[in-house]
Amino acid sequence: MNQTFQALSLSAAPPSPAPVPAEAAARAGGPGLGRGALALLLSAHPAPALAVTALITALGVAAGRDAFGSCLVALAVLTGQLSVGWSNDRIDLARDTAAHRRDKPLVAGEVQVRSVSVAACAALVLCAPLSLANGAAAGGAHLIGVAAAWSYNLGVKRTRWSWLPYALAFGLLPAFLTLALPGHPWPAAWVVAAGALLGVGAHFTNVLPDIDTDLAAGVRGLPQRLGRRRSRTAAALTLLAASAVLVLGPPGPPDAMGWSGLAVTGALAVVLCLPLGTSPDSRLPFLATLGLAGADIALLVARGASLS
Fold this sequence. Notes:
- It is a single chain.
- The protein has helices at 22-27, 33-42, 46-63, 67-91, 93-98, 113-132, 136-154, 163-178, 189-207, 211-216, 222-226, 228-248, 256-273, 284-302.
- It has 308 residues and is an all-alpha fold.
């Protein structure tokens, strides 16, 4: 799900010209090869794609995947994330154009529509064999997660069920890793629950900066329906719940790192639930939820050896 950790800022600037449809730019000859390749890469949301890939690869190493297996994990996750990122920008082209999103390469005419469409499909096609190379069960779990992310882009994001693809995709990621281990063990229930909660929290976090813009464009997922204030509270409580599961779920008493992580996430959750940074332009809620998610990720990686 590459939109999961997007750090998605407006500054005062002179009015920009009306956006140029990508189709018109393509007919006019399009950008130069080097600039076009960069624009194509940026259309895939590379920062969150690489962040998710690094996280899952690190978790795979912690779970016991060897060097070759870790490379397969990285390639499968990266191609899946790129396919989701490209499909997101292609599917949202009309909405982004209406919102004058000149930060989007497709809207600015810096890359051709056909190029993004082909790239999304090619990445998805590559993702399938790379996922299945980890084993049929493991690959199937990953492909279900990728399909959930595509379903979000294709319309679930506009419904009250917008959280579900995130819960499904993140909840299945531990299964992708453990089902490829000797004996093909299913991940522990607490890991699946923590992954799903982390995914839902990431959904609220990702949407927070753009709730007003989304509402203006007719996107009414669960965070948009709840509004900014209740969504930031939902993000805080969901991510705090993920922390509690990660600390208290594994067998045995929590260690010092676990208690410290729970204390940090608890403090950040309190900050988010207080009436601070209520201005629509405030970045405090978004940054606090990112900090919460980061703490959860650290706890998850630290418990990688206990996934199964």
